[in-house]
């Protein structure tokens, strides 16, 4: 009976212990299910992250085969996700370099992560699409380590076509700027805004100051100017441009290696180069212009003095001319008075005396000539027609006095043929040849 009671207690204890074990198993099962649910949630979350990621993401095993691929990676390479799983990565999309040369797997930085266990970055390679085209990428290869052993790698990458195009455009712009910078006719200096140190210059700048570029870069901008023009450690123009007091074209001076002083006009502006703000000064040599302006001022002064002198001379000449005119008038009046008082009375008496016809004619001619002298006829005729000979002038005077050719022959003692010849010459020289113009009438209009 005693043994039977003992057996019952043992069975009860065993049943209690078994219940406890069952409870523990049930608790463990609940924990397992919770863990599975957590893992499933985490997996789902990771899958959502991978699917939503804009970057391409690969999981590779130790042989380089795809273990997982997100949609972005598959889309960029032109495959479906399933078409990539299990296939060797390098032979699909990393087998050639950008120039088409073969890319051995041993040289691939992605696979280097398997060897050295380090993270590798690269942004100077291309991945190849299914259609045979390639695109530039920036990628990171990170080793997967489990229990101290490398079991694969995770590769993240992104298409950097836009960035490369922007870099190429920037490079071309920089090349164009450098070409324009170096080939510019004007001298260009670049100075650090903070320190005033010269960081670059072009060929024209070297020529302007007669120094090699290596002698300029690294020097303070005040080095370009005469010492007497420097105030507070920098040139007046640099200070004005740096403080923003003036953005206009300013004039200054530079000093060359041979100690020659040159006048320059400077236009400056703040620009950014490689992320650093600098002052760009464009210098134009205006030495010749300044010299020309100075010479012009001297010449203007000389002309001003000469003008004053000429005005004084002109005043003096006007006085002299006035005096000469007065003297001339006085002389003419005296001549006329003398002729009227001393000559004409005697001619009148001579004409009233007993003269033959020829003598009377000569007396008339004498009287007419005196009138011509006083009327300036002879002067007018000879001054207008200086090509008339003395004989032609005499005949012209007689024609004007209404003398016939016969009378002219008798007075001058010439033949009619000679007089006719001179008459023709007179008409020709006076521009009357072949014109129906009376020679006497014409000569009277010129008296």
Descriptive report:
This protein has 447 residues and is α+β, with helices and mostly antiparallel strands. The chain contains 16 helices and twelve strands. A five-stranded antiparallel beta sheet has the order 2-1-5-4-3, sandwiched between helices. Strand 4 (134-146) and strand 5 form a beta hairpin. It is rod-shaped, with a radius of gyration of 61 Å. Mean pLDDT is 84; it is low at 377-386.
Quick rundown:
The protein has 447 residues and is of the alpha+beta class.
Topology:
Elements: H1 2-52, E1 56-61, E2 66-69, H2 71-77, H3 81-84, H4 89-93, H5 109-116, E3 120-128, E4 134-146, E5 149-159, H6 161-183, E6 187-192, E7 198-201, H7 203-209, H8 213-216, E8 230-231, E9 234-235, H9 236-242, E10 250-255, E11 261-273, E12 276-285, H10 287-352, H11 357-375, H12 377-384, H13 390-400, H14 405-412, H15 416-429, H16 439-445
Antiparallel strand pairs: 1-2, 1-5, 3-4, 4-5, 6-7, 6-12, 8-9, 10-11, 11-12
Helix pairs in contact: 10-11, 13-15, 13-16
Helix and strand sequence:
HEEHHHHEEEHEEHHEEHEEEHHHHHHH
How many E strands?
12
Q: Provide the residue-averaged pLDDT.
A: 84
- CATH architectural name of the largest domain: 2-Layer Sandwich
- Look up the CATH topology of the largest domain: Beta-Lactamase
